[in-house]
Amino acid sequence: MLVHSRAGKWTTWVLFFALFLPLFALPLLVILLASFATNWSGALPSGATLSHYAAATSGGSLQALTTSLVTAGCASVLALTAGTWSALAGAALNRRGRRFMDALFMLPVAVPSVVVGLAVLVAFSKPPVLLNGTSTIVILAHTLLVTAFAHQSVAAALVRLDPAYEQAAASLGAGPAYVLWRVRLPLLLPSLTAAAGLCFALSMGELSATMMLYPPDWTPLPVQIFAATDRGSLLTGAAVSVVLMAATLLVLSGVSRIRTRASYR
Question: How big is the chain by its Cα radius of gyration, in Å?
């Protein structure tokens, strides 16, 4: 901690909890309590039940969870591939070229995600590339929305990368491809796993663009939550939200373990 005095540390912790509890912890606690409640008409919920979780882990909700996991997994892999390639390509450009590359990949997050969804819908609703009504168009939109974060993460890591390792490998006769696969990418592995986790989490929670694109047989879980709350089933929607958060945190914990091991390589 940058604050060294005792009073300063106490003040920092008080401000942290004063901001963290009402802005972050309390809303999540409300969702968690609502997911177990039979009714909530007063200041506190009344009754306790697991029926909301039975509905949240079966039937359409379970299928929607699988859809979200597949969509987020595919979008993360595609975004990480494109973002890593663009960051490596941009590192070889001059300053103006790198700025143009950064601006190009940041464009989808500089506009509302619903605009990205509309753009994808218009672009791929007619031949020669007809994707409207398929799961591919949803995965494509998610990829466009999260690639910027993969690009920025890898580009920032490349700036901090010590060129001595690559120069040493090249001086020993290693070719560019060998240096890339055996030197640069292993050194970038912690940043790659961090970028993959961020892309996955953002894709799991994406709603605006998805609402414009999803076909009836490919309904991600955020859409299911919106539909449940729109019908007035707020408590069931809360349970589905907890399932979404738990699934996301479970995958992120696995990615974090990979990142921790990569850091010690």
Answer: 22
Find tokens 């020993």 and name the residue.
172
Compute the distance between CA of residue 168 and CA of residue 190 in angstroms, rounded to an integer.
Answer: 21
Distance CA 29, CA 209 (A): 28
Alpha-carbon distance of 176 to 91, in angstroms, equals 14
How far is Cα 75 from Cα 196, in angstroms, rounded to an integer?
Answer: 10
177 burial level (CB within 10 Å; 0-12, 13-18, 19+): exposed
What are the residues whose beta carbons fall under 8 Å from the beta carbon of 195, sequence distance 6 or more?
Answer: 80, 83, 149, 150, 153, 154
Say yes or no to pLDDT of 56 above 70.
yes
Answer whether residue 264 shows pLDDT above 70: no
Listed in order, strand segments (DSSP E) in the chain are none
pTM over 0.90: no
CA 153, CA 157: separation in Å to the nearest integer? 6
Mean pLDDT of 145-163: 90
In angstroms, the CA 169 to CA 162 distance is: 12
Q: Map out the domains of the chain as residue ranges.
A: 1-49, 50-263
Which residues are CB-contacts of 210 (< 8 A; sequence separation ≥ 6)? 117, 138, 141, 142, 220, 222, 223
Amino acid at 90: G
Dist CA 257 CA 260 (whole Å): 5
Q: In 3D, which of 115, 120, 116 has the Cα closest to residue 132?
A: 120
As to burial, measured by CB atoms within 10 angstroms (0-12 exposed, 13-18 middle, 19+ buried), residue 79 is buried
Which numeric CATH code is attached to 50-263?
Answer: 1.10.3720.10
User: CA angle 74-193-143, nearest 5°?
Assistant: 30
**Rounded CA gap, 48 and 35, in Å?**
9
